[in-house]
Amino acid sequence: MTATDEAADGLRAMIAKGELTPGQQLPAEPELCARLGVSRGSLREAVRSLAALGLLESRHGSGTYVSALRPGQMLAGFAATVDVLPLDGLLELFDVRRPLEAQAAALAAARADERVVARLREVQKRLAVAEDEAERHALDREFHSTLCEASGNEALAALADVLRARGSHYSIYGAAEADTIRLASDLGHEALINAMAARDPAAAAAAATAHLSQTEVWLRRYAPLPDDGPAAG
Description:
Elements (H helix, E strand, L loop, with lengths): L2 H14 L12 H8 L3 H13 L3 E4 L3 E4 L4 H4 L1 H7 L4 H25 L2 H16 L3 H17 L4 H12 L12 H20 L3 H22 L11
Antiparallel strand pairs: 1-2
Helix pairs in contact: 1-3, 6-9, 6-10, 6-11, 7-8, 7-10, 8-9, 10-11
């Protein structure tokens, strides 16, 4: 283990034990170096690596602080990794994404109010008539993000968003069945909206599972190359 690794492990341990709390400024370098038994250079490298992972944040002219440690921040490093996955890796993630979004949909159906349902209907209405692929991608992501955020579980919503992002690089709308794919995707969204409106967690989970399973089938069938276009779902 390098000195930088030792410094990073030491800082993570201090955060995990509550010795450094969210939003707290790190002690002065000499104090940390003495406590961790590392040089200033190793400490600074460790701080940079932990900042990249979302654990720490540097504030110009003020110093380095423990981040708020919110799920979205903590998943930043994971998001960068997911965003370069080849198609076979993305397809493996569907085994994670399906149950994750099914749980999010179930929680959202149990907790959502009329404002959430109305927002989903409005987004889907725009999505159904959108012709530009970039616009469809943005609206599709807004739809699923809204649904997952309505679950009330920030960690679940943040992780689902990370897993969903890579799919936007694999377009299936250029396939021979493009019209069928669009219609089925829109119907999948409608099923989710109806389950939300009915406050039916089981129906919402089933609709999310069916919707994502169909998207996975299309991706496996057409095996598109990565580009800037959106995948359904």
